[in-house]
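[job 4471] stage=fold_predict status=RUNNING
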Amino acid sequence: MSLDRAGVWGIMFLEDEHNARRFPSPHIFREEIMKLQRIGLLVVLTALLFSHGLASGPELVSEVATEGQAVHGDILDGKLILSSPQGFQVLTAGGKRAFEGTLGANQGLVFSDNGEYFGITTYSKEASPGFLAADKFELHSSDGNKLWEIKDPGVSEFFISKDAKVIVGISGEEGGSESEADFYGSKGNLVSATRIRSPQGLDISPDGERILINSAKDGLLLFERAGRLVGRFGPCDQFAISSGGQYVATASEKTIRLQEVGKPPRELKQATSPVRSLCFSPDNKYLGAIDKANLFLFEVETAKLLWQHTLEQPELSFVSLDLCAGGERTIAGLDFDNGGDVPAAERHTKGLVYLFDKQGGLIWQNEVSYKLWGAVFPLVKISGDGSRFSIVTREKVYLYTNVLPQE
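[job 4471] inference complete, writing structure tokens
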């Protein structure tokens, strides 16, 4: 039924208190029709705007139940790896199983950040307490194809770059004073080795060109992929490396710094509590940082603070962070603390995910519930182009698309 016809029938069948039919005068009749037309147009426009807003917002497209398994890899731009002490499975973004494997009692699993490669380390059964030495290390592609293996590397832990062209092994007990970093090439050949006193963390740049190793004795050390030391950045608690390794961000307690090889460090900000995470955008133009109550976004070239978001609820705290290229979107995971008056199992049962635009405006938020909790959950990650993001808890992995508005 058209609007005009509906308007006519709606007016014709109005009844007065005597239950008699009453027809308005012609000019009143026309005014009533025009009024209904205006109301109808307003309703249509409102519906269109509302539906467009929904269409341009993030859309949940898949959920993967992890059932308490450890989550590795990247469902956005690579593969997702779910592991338990008994075995593991490699999943594609659509949740399809690409490979499934088992692990022995003396075997460990390592993986590249994008989940495209994984390694299986077989440890000596005669290892001394607190020290694990590998009898064998095997590198596999995500479909389970074995690429190469190393026998008797004597390494305790391995790290794999995204393209698997750089493998770094740390020998000796973690944090021990007599440790060594071994740098391997793309075929498993040992390229170089260097002594590292008390290693406490390692990160490989996204392109595999630079490696950061944090030493409790010597501070943060920057190496080329062949193992040559090219930079020292002093002691720190948190650190991140940009693609290509040109920039390094560090945090010592509350102080956030941006550093480059051969240049004085630039102090960016004093946080209100110890910094929890640092993150570069894929194009190296932006740096994000979080402490418990604040999210900061900096411009790398100028070291300028672009915007800051401060939480007003003391129960909420930032726990994870990621940026897309161009600074178009910043995503953060938050945990809600129910307080020490509730049982431990009920203290951390829900979190939030915040999505910000380029100016720091909060444009989307969503609540996530869970029974199993960890200090970095909900863990968030956004694709480089900003079109997708994932939310990881210890129970589920969520994949969203349609993050950027459609033109």
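[job 4471] summary: The CA atoms of residues 32 and 293 lie 55 Å apart.
[job 4471] exit 0
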